[in-house]
Design goal:
single chain, alpha/beta, Rossmann fold, 2 domains, 5-stranded parallel beta sheet, 31 strands, 24% strand, binds coenzyme A, binds adenosine monophosphate
């Protein structure tokens, strides 16, 4: 661990020196005055005085360096039978033209633009065109419903929306225009500019009011980049928090570019010319950082994959993509590996020569169970690295840093702290836990570059949600422990956030929706362990005494309501009706106990006989569900 320890210690003890060296690896228009300045709340302001443009770093730099013919992006879409490659020059041309089109629409630096698109190259072009003009994009995952879109339009104050005519879920066509129209109808702000990438190959409802991206691209003049201050926002990405309202994570330009550039080298060991594939969606942070920005800033080739690990057309699709495009480093979520394993138990779709090019598989997005890790290790016979991060950090906080010093893999651990992250396990009272003692995972301030500087127009919520729980620390919302060698084990969220098939969702938001239904007296939603998806939402509902309808009808209504309000990815599989919910003396629902009951883990029965009875009832219901 010597090399890793040396690099890590330097990053913690001499952050200014460490990050100044990393900042030299990107092209600045004006050099920063200093690496960082501390704010009064303990967070840092990165690379003040520096100016740059993230789209320029992703494209122009490489073209200017004579690498214009290198492949920047491969679009591999088994759902449309398409493979298309874009060189850096081609991508730059398209991005500059689309930036020209957006400028002609009157959009200027600082305007917010919602992007609601499937996994097509045009989504990346839209993101980079926004970055070029200094427009702040906010990508919304296509699995979210109109209501979620409306929340984001209003919170971001969006002036424009870029969308498509439809997405494809395996074989199901999802028309996007009706979702956009409903989202705009529900929002208070009404973005006037809506641009749509129209594939036109399916007969779907299309709005006459949306402008066609192709036509705009054809007519537009290429537009140059805008000089941005390091701390100017690049994007807002909304993520689930502990209330119904999503949190607008802000990402700056300078810190983000330096951190991502560093992560490609130090964590993923990826260099210019390598093929890097993150099988995620641009709607998630993994897609922002490792489909779009990091590989392009590095001058690598990225893959935009439109499909699923299974059924598009079979469980061998990931191995086919790796083989066909000679992928060097691959990144996916454990749930995708579990899906492949379930669908192809005898590995009929896998042949060792298909992954000859592959150096490393990285897994993240949710806890990686040991069985999935071992399955991937045995199958691939390559290093399989579990690493841990969040939308808030934007890049890994724990990892086995392949470009620094590959360390032995410990199953169950998401490895060791990444440079810049001073990770500590704290007790409830803020004191530090000993090795192996469970506690709250916190990071001593300041956070390294790339992490969220604040929440969009809500610094109060940022400080209350992340900084006030343990003064001097950023609170991650995860629980875990550290072993005697410094490996960190993440045991799961300690708040109302759950992870369903790698998708981050808020149980509090689901509770708000169910509680607002006329049939409900009370409810609690928790994450229950699931073999394929890691976790699935499970709802406990107390019905009003006046409710006379049968439980089947109400159950269907609740499931439907969640699906239409949040989206298909949030679908609740089980709704259990109970007489009462277990509570503390002060009336707080004992969600921990419900979680323990559902997940078969240890719990302490609370004092009163009534509570013991309620718990017994819940237990019986859960047992009935199991059988
Ligand atoms: N647009 C519209 N609907 C979407 C969608 C999108 N972009 N993404 C998912 N959905 C829908 C699905 O079609 C499904 O609908 P259904 O209930 O009508 O069948 C529902 O949302 C639930 O989707 P999901 O949770 O993804 O389950 P699944 O059974 O369709 O697929 C996996 C399971 C494991 C194959 C899939 O979740 C997967 O590939 N996960 C990896 C996720 C990932 O990479 N996360 C990023 C973190 S690194
Ligand atoms: P998201 O913001 O969507 O990336 O989700 C972040 C959350 O996912 C974290 O707070 C963790 O709870 C969980 N997570 C991500 N990666 C891992 C991992 N490798 N191990 C355990 N949990 C993880």
């Amino acid at each position: 661990m010597k090399t890793y320890q040396k690099v890590y210690q330097e990053s913690i003890e001499q952050p200014a020196l460490f990050w100044a060296k990393q900042a030299e690896k990107i092209t600045w228009f004006k050099q920063p005055h200093q690496p960082f300045k501390l704010n009064s709340n303990g967070t840092a302001h990165w690379f003040e005085g520096g100016t740059l443009n993230t789209s320029y770093l992703c494209l122009d730099v490489h073209v200017n360096n004579g690498l214009g013919d290198n492949i920047a992006l491969i679009y591999d879409s088994p759902v449309t039978n398409t493979i298309r490659k874009y060189s850096y020059s081609e991508l730059l041309h398209l991005v500059s033209k689309f930036a020209g089109a957006l400028k002609e629409k009157g959009l200027t630096k600082g305007d917010r633009v919602i992007i609601y698109m499937p996994m097509v190259p045009e989504a990346t072009i839209a993101m980079l065109a926004c970055a070029r003009l200094g427009l702040i994009h906010s990508v919304v995952f296509g699995g979210f419903a109109a209501h979620e879109l409306a929340l984001r339009i209003d919170d971001a104050g969006a002036k424009a929306i870029i969308t498509a005519d439809y997405g494809i879920e395996i074989q199901r066509i999802i028309p996007y225009h009706p979702i956009i129209e409903k989202g705009i109808e529900e929002s208070t702000l009404k973005p006037e500019i809506v641009i749509s990438f129209n594939r036109m190959t399916e007969d779907v409802p299309r709005s006459e009011h949306f402008e066609d991206m192709h036509s705009l691209l054809q007519a537009a003049k290429p537009e140059s980049y805008v000089e941005m201050a390091s701390e100017d926002p690049l994007y807002i990405l909304y993520t689930s928090g502990t209330t119904g309202k999503p949190k607008g994570i802000v990402r700056d330009n300078g810190g983000h570019a330096v951190a991502l550039r560093y992560s490609m080298e130090a964590v993923y060991n990826v260099k210019q010319g390598d093929v890097f594939w993150a099988a995620s969606d641009i709607g998630w942070v993994v897609g922002h950082s490792y489909i779009v920005y990091a590989p392009l800033i590095t001058g690598a080739t990225t893959i935009v994959f439109e499909g699923k690990p299974i059924k598009t057309p079979n469980a061998g699709t990931f191995w086919r993509v790796i083989d066909e495009h000679k992928v060097d480093v691959f990144f996916t979520a454990p749930t995708a590996i579990r899906a492949i394993r379930k669908e192809d138990p005898h590995n009929q779709f896998y042949k060792p020569e298909m992954t000859k090019s592959l150096r490393t598989l990285f897994l993240a997005g949710e806890r990686c169970d040991v069985s999935t890790l071992e399955y991937a290790q045995n199958l691939l016979q390559k290093p399989v690295i579990d690493h841990w991060w969040q939308t808030e950090s934007g890049w890994p906080m724990l990892a086995n840093m392949q470009g620094v010093e590959p360390l032995p893999v410990k199953p169950g651990s998401a490895s060791v702290p990444v440079s810049g992250y001073n990770i500590q396990i704290l007790h409830d009272d803020g004191t530090r836990a000993e090795a192996h003692e469970q506690g709250f995972v916190a990071i001593k301030l300041p956070l390294p570059p790339g992490c969220l500087p604040t929440l969009w127009q809500n610094n109060e919520r940022f400080e209350a949600g992340y900084l006030s729980r343990f003064p001097g620390y950023y609170f991650t919302g995860d629980g875990g422990y550290i072993d005697e060698e410094g490996y960190v084990f993440i045991t799961g969220r300690v708040d109302d956030v759950i992870n369903v098939a790698g998708h981050r969702l808020s149980t509090a938001e689901m509770e708000e929706i169910i509680a607002a239904m006329s049939c409900t007296a009370e409810c609690a939603v928790i994450g229950a362990a699931d073999e394929l998806k890691g976790e699935v939402p499970l709802a406990f509902v107390v019905l009003k005494d006046t409710e006379v309808r049968d439980q089947g009808t109400i159950r269907a209504e609740i499931k439907d309501k969640i699906r239409t309000e949040i989206g298909a990815v949030a679908s609740i599989k089980t709704v259990l009706f109970v007489e009462r919910l277990p509570k503390t003396r002060s009336g707080k629902i004992l969600r921990n106990i419900l979680r323990s009951l559902a997940n078969n883990t240890a719990y302490v029965v609370p004092g009163t006989i009534e509570d013991a009875l309620v718990i017994e009832e819940v237990k019986q219901l859960l047992e009935m569900r199991m059988h």
